[in-house]
Write a structure and sequence with these properties.
mainly alpha
């Protein structure tokens, strides 16, 4: 039996941060809820989260009342 060869490194990695290739909002919402609970942050209501979709981080943090020093 021949030894297994190590896998080749990927030649291309695609990152999708705006939801063009996949709708990541449901997973992001769950992750944020977990972090909010762990660190005592205010959770965003569903309508608020939808309204913040597409906002930059500074705008979202301000809307959620999260000071930058907590990052």
């Amino acid at each position: 039996v021949l030894p297994a060869e190590p896998p080749l490194p990927p030649r291309l990695v695609i990152l999708d941060f705006d939801g063009t290739l996949a709708d990541s909002l449901p997973r992001l919402s769950v992750a944020y809820a977990d972090v909010a609970e762990q660190f005592g942050l205010r959770r965003a209501a569903a309508a608020e989260a939808q309204a913040l979709r597409g906002s930059d981080a500074k705008t979202a943090l301000r809307a959620l009342g999260i000071p930058r020093w907590r990052l």
